[in-house]
Design goal:
Keywords: Hydrolase. The chain is α+β, with helices and mostly antiparallel strands and about 220 residues long. The chain contains six helices and eight strands.
Length: about 220
């Protein structure tokens, strides 16, 4: 679905298919408390209500909780269950993204290159590289994957997409063709996970599109 939508340049269907992949892997439908319900044992009614009381809406909120609040949230769980919660939270992807363009002033129809550096926050005690996705309802092991998408939301146009595996760190780049119109262009770059909800990121890319340079058609004799 992602490949078909991307090949047609359809932004909304491509993003929706990526989000559907996340929901299928985690067995969590988009809606009420989908982020917290990914964490083991936090999806029951009492803990879900406590999460709302404590203002916990994302897995990152669980990471940042005060010790006392976390103890309240995990009250009644055995040591093994608490260890499962900790394992999930520690494996949940927190990725720092830095990117750069070769220039903001671009001719219409010109190729634009985006260079990216991605680095995952990772505890050295957890090993050299992240393991498989924590997805207890998925039938089999699943490696973590990502898509990088560059789009023009105002035109609902997908300009470029690239499939990547981040691991702990990755240097990569992708290219796209600048829109065929003169003036400012406000683009978006999305980093979309294929296996976890709530860890996607988006970034602004602003270009100043100028007319293409006309080549001199006169040939010198």
């Amino acid at each position: 679905m992602v490949d078909v939508a991307s090949s047609m340049g359809w932004l909304a269907p491509a993003l929706a298919a990526m989000e559907l992949s996340q929901m299928a892997v985690q067995a969590v439908w988009e809606g009420r408390d989908p982020l917290v319900r990914q964490v083991p044992y936090l999806g029951d009614e009492r803990r879900a209500a406590l999460c709302r009381t404590l203002g916990v809406e994302t897995v990152f909120d669980v990471m940042d909780m005060e010790d006392g609040d976390r103890a309240r949230l995990l009250e009644g769980l055995g040591p093994g269950q608490v260890a499962e919660v900790a394992e999930y939270v520690n494996r949940y992807p927190n990725i720092e993204v830095a990117f750069s363009l070769e220039g903001r002033v671009v001719e219409v129809g010109q190729s634009v290159r985006v260079a990216l550096e991605l680095e995952r926050e990772w505890d050295e005690d957890e090993g050299d590289v992240p393991g498989n996705v924590r997805a207890p309802f998925f039938p089999g092991e699943r490696a973590e994957g990502w898509w990088i998408v560059v789009a023009e939301p105002a035109a609902q146009a997908l300009l470029a997409v690239k499939r990547i595996n981040v691991g702990r760190r990755l240097s990569t780049a992708l290219e796209f063709v600048a829109p065929e119109r003169v003036g400012p262009a406000k683009l978006k770059m999305f980093l979309m996970c294929d296996a976890y909800l709530g860890c996607d990121q988006e970034f602004d890319i602003e270009l100043d599109l100028i007319p293409a340079t006309e080549e001199d058609s006169d040939e010198e004799l």
